[in-house]
UniProtKB/TrEMBL annotation:
One of its GO terms (molecular function) is DNA binding. InterPro entries: Homeodomain-like_sf (IPR009057), Myb_dom (IPR017930), Plant_SW-associated_TFs (IPR051953), SANT/Myb (IPR001005). Coiled coil: none annotated. Keywords: Activator, DNA-binding, Nucleus, Repeat, Transcription, Transcription regulation. Residues 8-60, 61-115 form the HTH myb-type domain. It is found in: Nucleus. Residues 8-60, 61-111 form the Myb-like domain. CDD domains: SANT. This is R2R3-MYB transcription factor 52. One of its GO terms (cellular component) is nucleus. SUPFAM superfamilies: Homeodomain-like.
DNA sequence: AAATTCGTCAACCGCTCTTCA
DNA sequence: GTGAAGAGCGGTTGACGAATT
């Protein structure tokens, strides 16, 4: 090391030497974390505070776990990434002993590749399955392959009308509020949440256009729903009609209830045992008080647009082979009790050809659900 | 055995956010 | 209200070892 000038020491860059590590460790153990630029000076390091901070946080901190990621950690990262996207620090906050940098590297070097590989396998398996004789009723292919342009053509007039009528450009959520809500959602293993219209710029048709559409065969499990232009939306085509429609209703009802500040949540209930995914959405006037309306259960593939609004009650149809008796009972019970929604904690069971999944909504009252049948075929 | 490619990961860079005077 | 400084974040780079040619 040759940087010894007192007046204006040239700051070192690059890899840390063991001596530098020792200095930083000793200082931190004695003094704890303070102003990082002071740490650098007082520990006698020719490094900038930023470099010291990074070295401590990512490498020297005593509570770091290090070593290979366990399968459980890997699953957790994939799940959290589906909720939080590339917000590595937030993901790291939920994996004790792991750093954002470590997770980011792990994601970029390992998980990304694995997911890509898995998707390729899924495509192959889906292709071979499609070519073989199917005993299971396949959903209509037109709904599975509808191009985005056709979707937009179909929905945009309604969406524009909604935007003009209901979107409130005054509603802005602070970053802090947003983070708080994201935290609460990410802490629940069975939910993800994203954002709806906060400004005129983030309106529905805009959101729809910004979707990163994927063919159904390439859709990942536990996909993320987002209506924000800031976040990618790797949904498959088949989930869009139900989600868009549910949002349509949500807005209408929302407006009728004079509830202007809308927050959309989406619970991702993916069940490893069956490969079924159920979606639910709800909204609220703030993060605490969900205000569900309607009780809509629809199928995203087989009946993408067939269900209808019958005043207060929404009719729905599930495709042949699905047992929705649980849903019926709940809905009927709710209707008999004069309720127009199902409450948090309600449970439904989806069944098809022996595969089943229990969907329990733990966090939010249920507004809309769409059972993503693609997962049935691809798992 | 040497050259090249690939994968991993520590560290840097540039930006945004927060805090404080 | 404003600007400066520090903190934090995510994208990117580059060093280095392993694998491959």
């Amino acid at each position: 090391m040759s940087c010894t000038t007192e007046a204006k020491p040239k700051l070192r860059k690059g890899l840390w030497s063991p001596e530098e590590d020792d200095k930083l460790i000793n200082y931190m153990m004695k003094n704890g974390q303070g102003c990082w630029s002071d740490v650098a000076k007082q520990a006698g390091l020719q490094r900038c505070g930023k470099s010291c901070r990074l070295r401590w946080i990512n490498y020297l901190r005593p509570d770091l776990k290090r070593g290979a990621f366990s399968p459980h950690e890997e699953q957790l990262i994939i799940h959290l990434h589906s909720i939080l996207g590339n917000r590595w620090s937030q993901i790291a906050a939920r994996l004790p002993g792991r750093t954002d940098n470590e997770i980011k590297n792990f994601w970029n070097s390992c998980i990304k590749k694995k997911l890509k590989h898995n998707n390729n396998s899924i495509i192959k398996s889906a292709t071979s399955t499609a070519n073989s004789t199917m005993s299971m009723p396949m959903p209509a292919m037109s709904a599975r392959t509808q191009p985005l342009d056709a979707m937009l053509a179909r929905y945009q007039p309604s969406l524009r009308a909604i935007e003009n009528q209901f979107c409130n450009p005054e509603v802005q959520r602070s970053k802090r509020e947003q983070n708080q809500f994201e935290d609460s959602a990410a802490n629940s293993m069975n939910s993800c949440q994203l954002w709806n219209t906060y400004s005129a710029q983030e309106n529905f048709s805009h959101s729809l256009r910004s979707m990163n559409l994927q063919e159904p065969s390439q859709a990942r499990l536990c996909d993320q729903i987002s209506w924000s232009s800031n976040t990618q939306l790797p949904l498959n085509y088949t989930t869009i009609p139900a989600l868009v429609d549910s949002e349509f209703i949500s807005l209408k009802e929302n407006h009728n209830n004079n509830n202007q500040n809308e927050l959309m949540t989406a619970c991702d209930n993916y069940h490893e045992s069956s490969g079924l995914t159920a979606w639910s959405t709800s909204y609220s006037d703030n993060t605490e008080n969900c205000n569900p309306v309607g009780n809509i259960l629809c199928n995203a593939i087989a009946q993408p647009m067939e269900w209808a609004i019958n005043e207060e009650k929404i009719s729905y149809e599930l495709p042949q082979g699905y047992d929705c008796s649980g849903i019926n009972e709940k809905e009927e019970a709710g209707a008999a009790a004069g309720l127009n929604s199902l409450g948090g904690g309600d449970e439904f069971e989806f069944e098809c050809e022996g595969a089943s999944a229990v969907w329990q909504d733990n966090m939010y009252d249920i507004h809309t659900a769409a059972c993503d049948l693609d997962q049935m075929y691809f798992t």
